[in-house]
Amino acid sequence: GTAESFKGKKVVITSGPTHEPIDPVRFIGNHSTGKMGTAIALELASRGAQVQLVSGPTLTYPKHRNIQVTRVTSAQEMYEAAKSYFVSSDIAIFTAAVADYRPGEVADSKIKKTEQNLQITLVPNPDIAKELGAIKDKQFTVGFALETDNEETNALGKLKRKNLDMIVLNSLNHDGAGFAHDTNKVSIFDKHNNVHHFELKTKTEVAKDLVDLLQQALNE
Ligand code: C5P
């Protein structure tokens, strides 16, 4: 892609896991590393976009003059931050592995161990992609899907439900693809029923493919 093809475009990207607090020292989380979000942020930044990366807790964060990182912890915080940038964005890309539930109550002090079972009631988190999809006007929105069965049907269902323009389906039926790996095998669907299938590639190369399609779509 050309160096300035996204010049003047504002992009918000959600990335990484969320941590949902149980008490002051414990949380519910997942194994997302934020690699896919980081790769997309760097690819767009290198093509001149202004990127707001809203990231849950990860080990590293990208450094680029066109990327501003907002660090968040919980899904609720990620939603608030993403929403604040979304309103003035041209493009939103939802790569984060957002926890679907959080503890309904966060204990003020460390929960003590006893001999009894411990129950924690979980309440649903906001679906960031869905909530923002419902209020979008000009924004071009992209989501991700990780499916084990009925991959295509489920991905297309998500595309519709979350009012997305494009969805990236991660194939889990492949070694080296998905969570915490450096490679991904994806198919990309858009709302006009176009589909592109890609080979197993590094996340950097997947980001290039996605941004190429994004560039095409925005030029149409
Ligand atoms: O419904 P599911 O979690 O499979 O959808 C995945 C897509 O929705 C991803 O793009 C993910 O970032 C986004 N998502 C979100 N907020 C949630 C759950 C998922 O933005 N609470």
UniProtKB/TrEMBL annotation:
Residues 11-220 are annotated as: Phosphopantothenate--cysteine ligase. Keywords: Decarboxylase, Flavoprotein, FMN, Ligase, Lyase, Magnesium, Metal-binding, Multifunctional enzyme. Binds 1 FMN per subunit. GO terms for biological process: coenzyme A biosynthetic process; pantothenate catabolic process. CTP binds at residues 100, 110, 144, 158, 162. Residues 7-216 form the DNA/pantothenate metabolism flavoprotein C-terminal domain. The keyword Flavoprotein applies. Its EC number is 4.1.1.36, 6.3.2.5. Pathway: Cofactor biosynthesis; coenzyme A biosynthesis; CoA from (R)-pantothenate: step 3/5; Cofactor biosynthesis; coenzyme A biosynthesis; CoA from (R)-pantothenate: step 2/5. GO terms for cellular component: phosphopantothenoylcysteine decarboxylase complex. GO terms for molecular function: FMN binding; metal ion binding; phosphopantothenate--cysteine ligase activity; phosphopantothenoylcysteine decarboxylase activity. Its cofactor is FMN; Mg(2+). It catalyses: (R)-4'-phosphopantothenate + L-cysteine + CTP = N-[(R)-4-phosphopantothenoyl]-L-cysteine + CMP + diphosphate + H(+); N-[(R)-4-phosphopantothenoyl]-L-cysteine + H(+) = (R)-4'-phosphopantetheine + CO2. The keyword Nucleus does not apply. Catalyzes two sequential steps in the biosynthesis of coenzyme A. In the first step cysteine is conjugated to 4'-phosphopantothenate to form 4-phosphopantothenoylcysteine. In the second step the latter compound is decarboxylated to form 4'-phosphopantotheine. Catalyzes two steps in the biosynthesis of coenzyme A. In the first step cysteine is conjugated to 4'-phosphopantothenate to form 4-phosphopantothenoylcysteine, in the latter compound is decarboxylated to form 4'-phosphopantotheine. In the C-terminal section; belongs to the PPC synthetase family. This is Coenzyme A biosynthesis bifunctional protein CoaBC. It comes from Marinoscillum furvescens DSM 4134. The gene is coaBC.
